[in-house]
Design brief:
Layout lengths: L3 E5 L3 H12 L3 E5 L3 H4 L2 H15 L5 H9 L1 E4 L2 H5 L4 E4 L5 H14 L5 E4 L19 E6 L8 E5 L6 H13 L3 E5 L8 H17 L5 H12 L5 H8 L2 H7 L5 H14 L18
Length: 283
């Protein structure tokens, strides 16, 4: 059993992985690049406690407080990794940042440590060569609101040891996820291979002025019975991920979508559901 987890990155999804793992009984080190970023975590834990009170059966104040007590923040990577059985990386969705992060992790992690990336779209085989142990490197991908949408997509890259693959699937189960075994490298895993084309189509309709984002969402909800539309999903994901994925696109519509996200939302502090404001208001 892997008991000591280190999560690299404390953004929207990173903080959820940290809290869910601690709630499930793991000892978790929360690493980020500065104490200033880490100082915001106590407020984030209070927000997540409210989510668990609302959505999780059997939750108690004792369990929530115990989860927080199992989390140790640090901005020192060597300190963050010293006892890690497993590392989950949730840094920004840029290949250069991920590659640089894993080079630094490899310099500091014990030999026992298993390496996992939570990258949403980047193939792990592009990252594995930047580690010192490709046989222990693979993907463990989470959906936003991990306590409620609890898939744990476990995906190999060509050099992943099958034994490590199964160990990570077991770890996913231990932290309350439903392990989804993906036996061949697939950018976007299963979830995002299905979801990203929907979000891209919605963005295209909106940017080109075909319809308002409200009516695009309404159409999807009514026609499919889905509880949320694509722009509500984008609010849950947060603005930075779609911005990073689209800002360097060659497609002019995708590039314009990134510009609108930056100027109309990100620059105004409308980061999505986590901030209380995105395409929709949540306060």
């Amino acid at each position: 059993m892997m008991q000591n987890l280190t999560v690299l990155g404390t953004g929207t999804l990173g903080s959820q992985i940290i809290f869910q793992s601690a709630y499930s009984g793991k000892n978790v080190v929360a690493y980020d690049i500065s104490d200033e970023i880490l100082s915001k975590l106590p407020a984030r834990w209070e927000q997540l406690k409210d989510c668990y009170r609302r959505d999780v059966k059997g939750v108690t104040e004792e369990k929530l407080d115990a989860a927080v007590s199992r989390i140790r923040p640090t901005a020192d990577m060597k300190d963050a990794l010293k006892d890690a059985d497993i590392v989950i990386e949730a840094v920004p969705e840029r290949l250069d940042i991920k590659q640089d992060t894993w080079k630094k992790v490899s310099e500091n992690a014990p030999a026992k440590t298993i390496f996992c990336t939570n990258s949403s779209t980047l193939p792990p085989s592009k990252i594995a060569p930047f580690t010192d142990r490709p046989e222990k490197f693979l993907c463990l991908h989470f959906a936003n609101e991990v306590w409620k949408y609890n898939t744990g997509e476990v995906m190999v890259q060509p050099k992943t040891d099958p034994k490590v693959f199964e160990e990570v699937a077991q770890f996913a189960d231990e932290i309350g996820m439903v392990p989804i075994r993906i036996k061949k490298e697939q950018p976007g895993y299963l979830l995002n291979s299905l979801l990203v084309p929907l979000l891209d189509a919605a963005a295209d309709l909106w940017v080109r002025g075909v319809a308002s984002f409200e009516d695009i969402d309404k159409t999807w909800r009514i026609a499919t019975g889905a509880p949320t539309g694509p722009f509500e999903i984008l609010d849950t994901v947060g603005m930075m991920t779609p911005y990073n994925l689209n800002k360097d696109a060659t497609d002019p519509v995708k590039k314009e979508f990134a510009r609108r996200l930056k100027e109309d939302y990100i620059d105004k502090g409308k980061m999505g559901k986590i901030s209380g404001h995105g395409f929709y208001d949540y306060e």
